[in-house]
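tool_call: predict_structure(chain=1)
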Amino acid sequence: MKDKIYQTVTECRICYSKDLSQIIDLGSQPPANSLYKKNEPVPDNVPLVLKICNTCLTVQLGEDVSPEYLFNEYLWVTGTSKGAEEYSLDFCSRILSKFDDYEKLFVVEVASNDGTFLKKFQDNGCKVLGVDPAKNIAKIANENGVETIPDFFSTKISKKIINDNGHADIVFARNVIPHVKDIHSVIDGMYECLAVNGIGAIEFHNVQLLLRELHYDYIYHEHLFYFSLRSINNILLSKKLNIFDIDISPISGGSWVVYFSKAIKKKSKRFEEELEAINKINEIDLWKKFANDVEIHSSKLLNLVQDLNQKILGYGASARSSTLLNFAGINNKQIDSIIDKNTLKVGLNTAGSNIPIISFENGIKIMNQYNYILLLAWNFQTEIVSELRSLGFKGKFIVPLPGEPKII
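tool_result:
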């Protein structure tokens, strides 16, 4: 008998309150990146239930999947996304602009993936160090000249970094804090690692966009938390870290970047205004409306695909597409295959929907056999549509999100 890969939580991961309410049950689904070969056993299902803590208002999942199961071998490689590569330059320049002199700064990234973002700091004369638990991805980073520790970031790792290198001038974590089961250890580690006059940054999906534009495909087992500016501010304040500014990121269809420090700095007008706007929102009522809208949206998407009455092609076997497909009930009966540029995914099947993933090169050869491409990586719509049009695709695109599913 296989070991159970998940546990149901009974208390808030942030404040430990047992007062949790269910927002929406997205059904039992395999973890999004549980891609598998055709002749392998299908991955286990895990409940995908979104809850809210009525004490601290942190939105979170009702189950913990083993971090080792999720992250020891990872399939997302940052450098495969043109959008992420371009944004890495902007992200680097924004942080470095907050220093008078940034040469020889020591920069640490939590969950640094293949080192794409650290490389930009390295190119600006900074000493860099990454920490990432995916041994296969950390190996890529090290081979590319970005020193990376293949482990989970924690207070223990933070102490090792300080002993070996001293405190960091910059510590940042992009799209990782929502993934972290032991979130207190990670943020405590960031606090310890950061120099007294250093600057930290955390990037996380903008939960207000999730609500407003129905980004329910962002809900999957790797994402344990769904932070608002208020809830991220609360946990950082509890760790004696002070947010002083914010930025917008294009990643994941729209994210916040918060900048913080140990020292108390003057808060930007933008941060104060956004925080005030969040404080006026009755979040529980908004989440109830969100749950109802998600049910309606997924039915519309399934009907749209079924009413075409023909096989279609997919583009982007992203983790977020897994939730979209499985909750809507779209699978290999409607989708022949999904094109993806990530060579680690090619030749595998999607989890739950069981759709073969094919290479970009093979997809280009067959795309005009189809009248429609379902744009699963809709958050990179402009980039993908432009490229496929330039390569001769003459059909139409089904764009599931944001908002109503539509055909363009």
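agent: The first strand starts at residue 6 and ends at 8. Proceeding to next step.
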